[in-house]
Amino acid sequence: MSAEVACYGCMAFFDTPDALVDAVRALRKAGYEGVEAYTPFPLEALGEALGIPGNHVSLGAFIGGLIGGVGMLAMQYFSAVLHYPIRVGGRPFASWPAFIPPALEVTFLLAAAGGVLAMLLGNRLPTFYHPVFHIDRFERASQDAFVLVVCSHSAKRDDATLKSLLQALGAVQVDEVPA
Amino acid sequence: MSTPGQVAPTDNRLLTSAQTYTTISEKIGVLTLSPRSRPLWMAAFVCSLLLTLMFAAGVGELFEKGVGIWGINIPVAWAFALINYVWWIAIGMAGTFISAALYLTRQAWRSSLNRYAEAMTVFAVSVSGLFPIFHLGRPWFFYWVAFYPNRMGLWPQWRSSLVWDFLAILAYLAVSIMYWYVGLLPDLATLRDQAPTRGKQVFYGLLALGWRGEARHWKRFESLNLVLAGLAVPLVFSVHSMVALDFSEATLPGWHSTLFPPFFVAGAFFSGFAMALVLGIPLRRWLGLGDIITLKHLDNLSKMMLAAGLFVAYNYVVEFFMAFYSGDPYEMAEVKDRLVGPYAWVFWTVIACNVITPQCLWSPRIRRSPGTLFAISVLVLIGMWFERFMLIVNSLFRTYLPSSWGMFYPTVWDLVFLFGSIGLFLFLFVLFVRLLPIVAIYEMRKLIHKREEPG
Fold it and tell me: What CATH number is attached to the domain comprising B303?
């Protein structure tokens, strides 16, 4: 590879979740931005350490559910009252109690779909190519390794300082991630 | 952390101290990626494949000749197809309950069960949804139940519980698949990273959608799990209530009752927990998962099965009471037919399997002996199938006019569809065991992490 290849960031491996969380805290304290943490299972402490803001998953589910419920009621009204009114057993055209079960089911369906969509969009999935996959050892991140990446666009970019800082924080391996 | 590789598979505690992040990931991953030669798996695969082929032959015959190949006629126009449909969709319910309701109530032990229970749900609902379509007479027009702009200018009849039911099955199947697949993503990524060959790496890599396990991703993932669990619990109750409304909307003695929705939901959990045990006990034994699906899990599942069973028994009592309390001669006649009529043997089978047998589960010793539990669960499944037979056939065969009474006798094609559908379900499950991680690996790692946290 040529020397001009851009660098995505600096990757450090830790053996324990605690070491990773401590390292994230220390780096953020030292003023590093663009810190990413990769773990084999969800780690609650990381949310607070990284200062992760809230997400839009429940909003997505709410919007989906709203479209499903209101949309289904509106469609049944349109169909049974306006477009094709037909008397069944002397019931009113707009027999809304009977319209609720279909509206309920479609609410569940579209709320779930909205949540899944919000998760996938928020996480930018599917993303089959990502720079972190360049590092061979990164495959441990889905099994037993706790990985930290400081992105190159971080304000304080000085590789030597960063590397020694990461090693001081207990990283077992530090790699440069090509972009 | 202790040294890896010293796991006693027969230990009955959940995740012994010897299990680490590394060993648990390998233990479950290896079952999928490079299993030892498994003659038992092969036998299950071949048997279920043969039954599935028989099912396919039955479907071919049905499409060729129509529903007349079954024993249905007037007055018993609903029989095996509807019995099988209700039986299968009920079995799915417990899977969602295990993964969603126990998630919301923070029952950490559920992590060992939820993956295969969700798979059970997806397959049972898929099999179940086929039966109403087969029963249509002209199954190739099944999409007429759906609403879509069509040149005939027609709409579904929104006031019909059959349309509600169609939407309920559709929503339930779709939500179950989403819930299952989203939960699989991190584990598919684990398999991708462990894959020994390029082919497997690509296969699981594509399925994993490029999951990396970044902290922000996990956060959205966890939010979504919570949302989906919160949606799935009311969905389960609504779906089986819709199934029950198919019956209670009809003005037939034995059907026309507000008791049906809760009664059906209880029956659904009852048979679903039984199926969870029937599938879990062999998995545990044959795949050496004794330290993941522990005796404590079997114990908990059987307690839930017992609780659901007691509720079902209570419903049988209420049904009888209401029939006589109503003063309606037709309702009373229906109950009398149930007790001493030509189908009385069905009723007594139901009582033996669903009310008497589960009482063994009061004994802690039985709750912890897998073999006995397996037998009890099979009996419960049989009993629940006959319960649907009792509810459906016993209400139809003697309706209001004695001149239109008639018995129902199944044909060989009825049996082909019953056993064929069992074959199809097992076939899908056997494939799942081979191709996907049968335990949620990331949740196991989370449990190990919890164990290591002080306090």
Answer: 1.20.1630.10
Q: How far is CA B411 from CA B34, B67, B131, B387, in A?
A: 44, 11, 16, 20
What is the Cα–Cα distance from A117 to B385, expressed in whole angstroms? 38
Nearby residues of B401 by Cβ (< 8 Å), 6 or more positions away: none
Q: Mind telling me how many Å the CA of A22 is from chain B's nearest CA?
A: 15
- The CA-CA-CA angle for residues B91, B261, B302, to 5°, reads 40
pLDDT of residue B101: 92
pLDDT bucket at A91, cuts 50 / 70 / 90? confident
Q: How far is B94 from chain A (nearest CA, A)?
A: 18
pLDDT digits (tens, 9 = 90+) for B45-64: 999 999 999 999 999 999 99
| Residue spans per domain, chain A | 7-40+144-178, 57-119
In whole angstroms, what is the distance from residue B227 CA to residue A76 CA? 27
Once rounded to an integer, what is the mean pLDDT over residues B32-53?
90
ipTM over 0.95: no
Domain interval for residue B240: 21-452
Distance linking the first and last C-alpha atoms of chain A:
11
Of residues A42, A119, A142, nearest to B193 (C-beta): A142
Looking at the structure of chain B, the number of domains it has is: 1
Contacts of A117 in chain B (CB under 8 A): none
Instruction: Report yes or no on B185 lying in a domain.
Output: yes
pLDDT score of B1: 35
Residue B248 counted as domain residue: yes
Of the candidates A95, A130, A143, the beta carbon closest to that of B25 is on A143
> Is residue B34 in some structural domain?
yes
Q: What is d(CA B294, CA B447) in angstroms, rounded to the nearest whole number?
A: 14
Which residue of B lies nearest to A116 if distances are taken between CA atoms?
B224
How many A-B residue pairs are in contact by the CB < 8 A criterion? 187
Residue of B nearest to A91 (CA): B159
**B109-126 per-position pLDDT tens digit:** 899 999 999 999 999 999
Among candidates B192, B205, B442 on the partner chain, residue whose Cβ is nearest the Cβ of A41: B442
The answer to whether residue B22 neighbours chain A at the CB level (below 8 Å) is yes
Q: Quick check: is B15 in a domain?
A: no
CATH superfamily, domain at A7-40+144-178: UreE, C-terminal domain (3.30.70.790)
Section B130-146 average pLDDT: 91
